[in-house]
Amino acid sequence: MDLFEAIREVVGEAGLIVGDDVRARPADWQGRAQCGAMAVVRPRTTSELSAIMKLCHQARQPVVPAGGLTGLVHGVDAQENEVQISFERMRAIESIDVIGMTMVVEAGVPLQSVHEAAAKHGLAFGVDLGARGSCSIGGNISTNAGGNTVIRYGMMRENVLGLEVVLADGTIISSMNALLKNNAGYDLKHLFIGSEGTLGIVTRAVLRLRPIPASETTAILAINGFDNLADVFGLASRRLGGLLSSFEVMWREGYELVAIESGRHQAPLAGGYDFYVLLEATGTDPDHDAALVEAVLGECLEQGLAEDAVIASSKTQRNAMWEIREDSQTVRQILFPASVFDVSLPLATMNDFIEALRASLHAEWGDQVRFIVYGHIGDGNLHIIVSPRPWSPEARRRVEEIVYKPLAAINGSVSAEHGIGLEKREWLSISRTAQEIALMKQLKAALDPFGLLNPGKVLGEEAG
Amino acid sequence: MDLFEAIREVVGEAGLIVGDDVRARPADWQGRAQCGAMAVVRPRTTSELSAIMKLCHQARQPVVPAGGLTGLVHGVDAQENEVQISFERMRAIESIDVIGMTMVVEAGVPLQSVHEAAAKHGLAFGVDLGARGSCSIGGNISTNAGGNTVIRYGMMRENVLGLEVVLADGTIISSMNALLKNNAGYDLKHLFIGSEGTLGIVTRAVLRLRPIPASETTAILAINGFDNLADVFGLASRRLGGLLSSFEVMWREGYELVAIESGRHQAPLAGGYDFYVLLEATGTDPDHDAALVEAVLGECLEQGLAEDAVIASSKTQRNAMWEIREDSQTVRQILFPASVFDVSLPLATMNDFIEALRASLHAEWGDQVRFIVYGHIGDGNLHIIVSPRPWSPEARRRVEEIVYKPLAAINGSVSAEHGIGLEKREWLSISRTAQEIALMKQLKAALDPFGLLNPGKVLGEEAG
């Protein structure tokens, strides 16, 4: 019996897609490319996936596990000799423990569904990001997603208590811990969180939930000068402490592009300032929390750290502020084709890094380059989009050099939250030592000796 | 040249201890047993340890890395054929980045020194526990220590950004990341955090610091009935949110033993209630935070959830409350010899578990058994001390059966924060599946094929 007949016996007729039907499927959430795999397998359960992997292992068939296809680093690109594993038939929210504040989900559940299901019980999930409607929990786990509330709740890693994965040989590792503290042996889940499907395939997870905050106060500040920006962050951290849940910064060009130039938004603050900060505080005491944020903003203005500020006075205004931060559509329409970066670096080096970048880009392309910067300053994470004209593979390459190379000297990372995928492989050594990369390859070889899981991603073709 | 001559050339005369001088050294922080190793090696740097491990690897010489010797699971016991690695000459606090809020330390630094050094800059470290004066950061990392503020800041794992380790063959893995977000390849540090020195030896770390909270409000509540206890925790979590930093519960017997029977403390509340909760809130707004805690306590009393409560009105009163919680000396003097447990289990199963345990113990030993329970309820972690008379190895064994076996059915853990060491090895399968344990052994074999690192701990003799 050939491999696909055997797989079809496991997953049923609807579980296996081959031929032209594969090409009709997208390779990314925008549908700009078509799926390149030889087949798509859609298991309904972990047991089915285990059986599939046993067959693939026997046949040395490489597989590419894919989630909501919202990644930005070509982390789930599939070649003609590869089988894509889809989780679109594993979208169950299995249970919610309201007292223990945990939720058990299958890998295919969209992030937004987790938020909605938790909210019905007065609970919230600590990871949120712009792609919430499309991205899947399994993908969020495999890439250790970050997002807008990392300074308060941490990344995906800190919000996953237990995990179930299928290894390359089909073994099911069910590590569905629901306890906040468990030091009984090695904490295996951390091997699989953030390793982009190269060590195992995430099938189910136990998520940690939190009480929904009773208060939510959102503001935008305009700031001139990076030192003032850093001081505002320091002041907000000290005064708001555990209330501070977001501190998102837009450099002038990005704010003006989206809030003003696009014509799609009502700009809450005028253009022309160096930085725009979207600050959000969530807590348990609405009157007090709003007053505290107002007091903090007042101090920033009085001390001359901020030039202007506005607090959202309704949920509608709050959402409008976030829509400016999350309007990737405008950015794509105006700036693409472009290079998208997701770097992290120490706060103390950030301004020099960006100013040197600005100078280098203009030295290379004069006024034929646009670039915008925004990011989660609170955790040192910047997203940078660079759009040189004319666009070419060589231009892309040159932009990458200009952005990545200076990171080595300041201990920055070439990927804060997007991962490595195919796109950043050759830059991995900027952020990791040869010994670290050798150890990664040793782990890959131990867990996936035939290199069947997401081949070529993170570590390159020769790994596994 | 024999192994020890070669080691002496690396570490110098003072760096190698052999013979009777080894026996003069303690095996635990109380000095109750003497060090059983054939030699103690005291490197001054990571490079020295790397050279030592290259020699040991060549000679197939097993080693036992040891920290402050405050562990409770025989995690660093050394045999006559083993060499102990001591970090007493690696106690430097190398640097503090006040803006980035990080600290670089060597493994031998005591936890308390970290707190003190951070405090000088208005910063705090998120992990604290009773053994702070003796335990070392390297040991805290290797065991993924928890402690008193896990509900606010997480365990050691969440408070370590970067790590340097020496592998079994002497390779130095320098993964000294100082960034809050870094998804550039596998997050290797999590392999070594909590694996009790069996996969690599921690030599240096980058710790995450936080601003020192501007407010600290501490209270003790007396509560009758487990449902009320759970409701008080729920109410405090909802109302205090990110302010709630400790929620430590003492079951009646333990509170009465320490606060009243010992004669060492002034009891803040009378005996006779089912539970005593030590609640602490830390925040940024002293007046508001104290008023909020007071309001929450008021609600607990009004709603009949708590019977009595007292708020510490001074730092002295606050410390006196914590001294009751942390008085392990009294517990040892009155109850030892005894079995010490560190389990975690879902809050919803906790009362039934303890009541069944109480019944089983009295069924077995009548009134010839004392037991006390206290723990970090907020994260499902209970410490249980059982003292049956007459004491014997058989009695210890029987107590272990009575405590551990019921955990399997309720997905509890045989170790919440103490680790496995030698002591809990045979109970590991209560909390972990055969597939999980097989994967742990596979990792051990990949990283330490000759089984040279902390032999026998966690996984047993045959691993590696």
UniProtKB/TrEMBL annotation, chains A, B:
<feature type="domain" description="FAD-binding PCMH-type">
    <location>
        <begin position="33"/>
        <end position="212"/>
    </location>
</feature>
<dbReference type="InterPro" id="IPR016167">
    <property type="entry name" value="FAD-bd_PCMH_sub1"/>
</dbReference>
<dbReference type="InterPro" id="IPR051264">
    <property type="entry name" value="FAD-oxidored/transferase_4"/>
</dbReference>
<keyword id="KW-0285">Flavoprotein</keyword>
<dbReference type="InterPro" id="IPR016164">
    <property type="entry name" value="FAD-linked_Oxase-like_C"/>
</dbReference>
<comment type="similarity">
    <text>Belongs to the FAD-binding oxidoreductase/transferase type 4 family.</text>
</comment>
<protein>
    <submittedName>
        <fullName>FAD-binding oxidoreductase</fullName>
    </submittedName>
</protein>
<dbReference type="InterPro" id="IPR016171">
    <property type="entry name" value="Vanillyl_alc_oxidase_C-sub2"/>
</dbReference>
<dbReference type="Pfam" id="PF02913">
    <property type="entry name" value="FAD-oxidase_C"/>
</dbReference>
<keyword id="KW-0274">FAD</keyword>
<dbReference type="InterPro" id="IPR006094">
    <property type="entry name" value="Oxid_FAD_bind_N"/>
</dbReference>
<dbReference type="InterPro" id="IPR036318">
    <property type="entry name" value="FAD-bd_PCMH-like_sf"/>
</dbReference>
<dbReference type="InterPro" id="IPR016169">
    <property type="entry name" value="FAD-bd_PCMH_sub2"/>
</dbReference>
<keyword id="KW-0560">Oxidoreductase</keyword>
<dbReference type="InterPro" id="IPR016166">
    <property type="entry name" value="FAD-bd_PCMH"/>
</dbReference>
<dbReference type="InterPro" id="IPR004113">
    <property type="entry name" value="FAD-bd_oxidored_4_C"/>
</dbReference>
<dbReference type="Pfam" id="PF01565">
    <property type="entry name" value="FAD_binding_4"/>
</dbReference>
